[in-house]
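The authors assume throughout that readers already know how a fold can be written as discrete tokens. What matters is that the chain and its backbone geometry are given together, residue for residue. A single example would do more here than another paragraph of explanation. For illustration, here is how one protein appears when written out as sequence plus structure tokens.
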Amino acid sequence: MLARRAGPPVAWEASSGLTGYTEAVARMEALAAEIAAGRAGERVWLVEHPPLYTAGTSARPQDLIDPQRFPVFASGRGGQFTYHGPGQRVAYVMLDLKRRSQDVRAFVGALEDWVVASLADFNVRAGPRAGRVGVWVARPEKPPLPDGSPRDDKIAAIGVRIRRWVTFHGIAVNVDPDLDHFSGIVPCGVTGHGVTSLVDLGLPAAMADLDAALRRHFERFFGPAN
């Protein structure tokens, strides 16, 4: 757990409509700098983006299959290529680890656990997988991989950056995006497995439903929010 040892609750903000990626990154970087300087409080910012691909610091050019399909943005976060678009909830998490635990692995694990707990509210059994970033759902009803191993589908991506021990970027959870849009990349560099969403799993969830679940479980992992 990364509950804050002291200080005010984490601010909780949700933007309506679609937020441009360049705008989002500029705002995150400015907020992270203000938090590090002690001039602003911690914040979780919920957005949806227009359709786009982002390339993390480990992205491989060959994993961008269709570079003309959507705009492609270089991103300072960790990880490889991912897709953002309508129907996907992106939560940008700006926390000061100096006031919590200066442990990057623990922070990423807490993000995974937060997503897993939130998805459990929809009766989705999800979890991390060794050697693969993000949160996954087992799909035993689908054909196994050629080596006989079971098929998983990714339901949430995680990519973070930390500067002066302040986190930014965060998580992306699929509520009801167009899953075909992931076919323009190799998502997070993982082949063989697929991508899913709450609606694809047969759950008629709305964005507001996921937002409520994320908000409900945030305090358990990161401390109070307002």
Remarks:
- The first strand starts at residue 11 and ends at 14.
- The chain has a mean pLDDT of 94.
- The helical segments are 21-36, 104-120, 207-222.
- Residues 104-120 form the longest helix (17 residues).
